[in-house]
Amino acid sequence: MNGPDIKKESLKILEIGSGLGYLTYSLNKENYNAIGLDISQTAVDHAKATFGNHYICADLFEYARLNPLSFDIVILTEVIEHISKPIDFIKSILMLLKPDGKAIITSPNKSLYPPDIIWATDLPPVHCWWFSEESMTYIARSLDISVSLVNYKEYYKKNYKVISLKSLRDGRLPNSFFNENGELINEVARTKNSIKPFLQVLLTRIPFASPVFNKLKQLILTAVGSSRVLFDKDLIVCGERGNTICAILVKGPHN
Predict the structure, then answer these.
(1) Which of 48, 91, 180, 236 sits at 20 to 30 Å (Cα–Cα) from 164?
(2) Residue of 238 and 186 predicted with greater confidence
C-alpha cells in the first residue's frame, strides 16, 4: 500500500465522523477516493448539498459488519474522545480495513500536560475521554496491532505554540456547554479580538522581520527542548509533542 506505484485514486479512504464534509471533500479534490461517514443525517445532507455525493449516513458498527475489508485507510479526526467504548469502536474500524490497512486517529493530547493537570479538554458529555500517548499504546497492544505517533517537531518550528496552565492550576475546569442529557446550556463564547495574532502575521510578512522572528522561535525551542515547561511552571511550548495526538494504527494479518 505504501509503494511508489500506488495511485491516489486506487486507495479507498473512509473518514468516520465526516461532519459537514470538509476533509472528505478536500481528499477527493486531491484525487483520492474518499467517502465520509457520519451518524447525523443532517450533517450528511448538508455535506452532500455543499460538496457532492461523497457521504453516507450510517452507524459504524452496522456499516463495518456489512462492508468488511473494504478500505485501505480510515481517518478519525477528533472523534474517538467522544466515544463511550473506544476499543469496541476501533475493533469495528479494523473490520473495515484491508490487511496492512491504517487507521489515522487524532485526539486532544493529555501527554503534553504535567501530571497535576487533571482535565484540560471539553467536559463530559462532549468528551468522554482525554487520551495520552500511553492510552493509544495500550489500545494498540490490547488489540494486537502496531501503533506509531506523529512527531510534531518540524511543524512547530514554523507554527510556534505556547500553552498557559495558570487557569488549570487555579482549579478552573473548562466550561460545560451541555447537560447530562446532551441539551445545550451555554452558548460557545465568541473569540475576543486580540492583537497577538495580528502581530504574528505582521512579523512573518515583513521581509526583514520574518527571519528574525523565526530565528527567535527556534532559539526558544532549542533552549527548552521539546514539549516541556517554558521558563516557568505555568507555560508549555509545543515541540515533538503537540496539543493533539496523531496515532497511526496498522492492521496486522490476524486482526
Answers:
(1) 180
(2) 238
